[in-house]
Design brief:
421 residues; alpha+beta; Alpha-Beta Plaits; 3 domains; four-stranded antiparallel β-sheet; 12 strands; 38% helix; 20% strand; DNA-binding
DNA sequence: TCTGGGGTCCTAGGACCC
DNA sequence: TCTGGGGTCCTAGGACCC
């Protein structure tokens, strides 16, 4: 039996952990550069529904409304969320085998001998313990496949009479939960696909689960086919304590303010090149191709500009120097004087295992693995920017706009909460 | 004053090669 | 006289997730 434990409105709930004064207020958290709303606590969700404030909407459009309604607004405080997340995951680990899926979700696996009643009790125990240890509200869902565990998790919060714990063990459980679940609430089905399903007469998750998998593959894609199999109770997605290696690694970001200068564009792209290479080395991969792109904003009052360049490496590489060299070479194709750049990024694609052998006998790798290893170990020990490449620029100009940042209560001595006596 | 996230995987289609 | 395949690489964009 598999389970999914996830925090409710993770970022917003995490903001409340060290600040009990906002615990009973509607809290929302903004994305990088304070652009969009990315998290809402349950109180904010309820209130937001009446006011038309919802997740992923641009913040500036609702800022006035939110202020008047007494919303507490926070910028993303990733340092804090990462620590809160770690505490949550550690608590889960004390209950059994875990697989961390994202910052606020973890899958767990329990022996088949556990009875329904016992699992249910265990779920409540998990919730209580996480609240006691971390002050984070979570939902717990059990199911025979990852997708069904997700569905049960959804039911644990959304179904009438929900208690924070739900279980799909029998055919009837499955039917009960899925028939009350919209297609776009199924893991892997978004708004667009749900619309197409609707046209075909498939109105809820139970009807989707009843479709022949082969037919769904023909009408949609292999991903949808997998989803249908999982909904039927076949554990199609494997339990993986080790994350499968990524096939592509991107680093992209919008600028705090528009960029018009080619040096700044180069600095930003180089920074992305560094970040993506570091992540690639973390998973022991080499890349054979790279996508470099830069774009203006589609919302600006000017012709939209977007350009991407594909670079193929002679020999697959994981050496930051080679990657930055290719970025420099691509710059003239990306930079157009007068363009107000809004966003740029680098993607390392066509990733291979580091053992990957090159077919071309005449091309020799220029990588210096020991140099990269040294670089990574120094930066890992002393902080990410201890050693960096000059092409990224000397000043750190691309700091995010974070106007509503809370204290870094877990990562800065000066921000540690004080208890007044 | 100005403001619209970031990451990954998949697929359709065009260009090109033999 | 008229017609014609299959593979690879790249681009662009769709779709999903959190």
């Amino acid at each position: 039996m598999l389970a999914l434990i996830d925090a409710t409105g993770m970022y917003a709930s995490a903001e409340k952990v060290f600040d009990p004064t906002i615990r009973n207020k509607p809290v929302i958290v903004l994305s990088n550069n304070d652009g969009c709303i990315v998290a809402m606590c349950p109180i904010a969700k309820r209130l937001g529904k009446e006011l038309g404030i919802s997740k992923f909407g641009p913040y500036f459009q609702v800022a006035d409304k939110a202020r008047k309604a007494g919303f507490v607004v926070k910028s993303s405080n990733y340092e804090l969320y990462a620590d809160i997340s770690q505490r949550m995951m550690e608590t889960c680990e004390s209950f059994g085998e875990t697989h961390i899926y994202s910052i606020d979700e973890c899958f767990m696996r329990f022996p088949d001998e556990y009875t329904k009643d016992y699992l249910e009790e265990l779920g409540h125990d998990l919730r209580k313990t996480i609240w006691r240890h971390v002050r984070l509200p979570v939902g717990v869902g059990f199911g025979p496949s990852l997708t069904l565990a997700k569905a049960a998790n959804h039911a644990s919060k959304k179904l009438p009479g929900a208690t924070g714990v739900a279980l799909i063990a029998t055919y009837n459980d499955r039917k009960h939960v899925l028939s009350q679940m919209a297609c776009d609430d199924v893991w892997g089905v978004g708004r667009r696909l749900a619309k197409r399903l609707d046209v075909m007469g498939i109105k809820n998750a139970w009807q989707l689960a009843e479709q022949p998998a082969k037919k769904i593959r023909k009408d949609f894609s292999i991903l949808m086919e997998n989803t249908v199999r999982e909904l039927k109770g076949e554990a199609y997605y494997q339990w993986d304590t080790v994350r499968p290696a990524k096939k592509e690694i991107y680093s992209t970001r919008s600028f705090g303010k528009r960029v018009t200068c080619n040096i700044e564009l180069k600095n930003a792209l180089s920074g992305h090149g560094e970040t993506a290479s570091r992540k690639m080395r973390e998973q022991n991969s080499l890349c054979a191709g790279m996508v470099i792109f830069a774009a203006s904003s589609p919302h600006d009052n000017a012709p939209y500009f977007k350009k991407s360049v594909y670079h193929q490496f002679e020999v697959p590489t994981c050496d930051t120097r080679i990657i930055l060299g290719a970025i420099s070479a691509a710059l003239p194709q990306l930079y157009k004087s007068g363009t107000r750049y809004y966003k740029c990024g680098v993607g390392l694609v066509d990733l291979h295992d580091s053992q990957y052998q090159q077919q071309d006998l005449f091309a020799v790798s220029q990588d210096d693995p020991s140099l990269m290893k040294m670089l990574d170990s120094i930066n890992s020990r002393y902080g990410r920017h201890t050693l960096q490449f000059a092409s990224r620029g000397i000043e750190q100009k691309f700091d995010m706009k974070r106007e509503f940042l809370s204290k870094r209560a877990t990562t800065r001595w000066s921000d540690i909460p004080r208890v007044m006596c």
